[in-house]
């Protein structure tokens, strides 16, 4: 395999990692008591996310497009995680029984 093939394969793997990491963050945001920011730190995405956000707002940088692509991948994964987990978790509640917090 040539160098370009290896680069493309590594790029696809990185993209998949970013999307899956975003999904984990999205799911963590749905679960009460679990922080999406904590998931970012655990998955090792937090520092790169902060750097990417910073790069997007700088005017003259070479990494701006790369940062936008990274942010889009993480945000797409987070959206899939939030929507998918929210839809699947609605079946966990019992419609005939009141929730413990409904009396508060």
Structure description:
There is one protein chain. The chain has one domain. The longest helix has 28 residues, at 3-30. The protein has helices at residues 3-30, 36-43, 46-56, 64-89. The model has no long low-confidence stretch (mean pLDDT 83). The chain is mainly α and 104 residues long.
Element layout with pairings:
Elements: H1 3-30, H2 36-43, H3 46-56, H4 64-89
Helix pairs in contact: 1-2, 1-4, 3-4
Largest sheet geometry:
none
Summarize the helix and strand pattern as letters.
HHHH
Shape assignment: elongated
Tell how many strands the DSSP assignment holds: 0
DSSP summary: helix tally:
4
Structural class designation: mainly alpha
The structural domain count equals 1
Features of the shown structure:
104 residues
In summary, what is this structure?
The chain has helices at residues 3-30, 36-43, 46-56, 64-89. The chain is mostly helical and 104 residues long.
């Amino acid at each position: 395999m040539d160098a370009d093939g290896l680069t493309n394969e590594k790029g696809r793997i990185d993209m998949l990692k970013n999307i899956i990491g975003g999904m984990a963050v999205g799911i963590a945001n749905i679960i009460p008591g679990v922080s999406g920011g904590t998931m970012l730190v655990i998955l090792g995405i937090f520092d790169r996310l902060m750097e990417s956000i910073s790069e997007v707002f700088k005017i003259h940088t070479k990494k701006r497009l790369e940062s936008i692509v990274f942010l889009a991948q993480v945000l797409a994964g987070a959206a899939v995680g939030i929507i998918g987990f929210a839809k699947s978790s609605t079946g966990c509640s019992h419609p005939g029984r009141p929730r413990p917090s409904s009396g508060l």
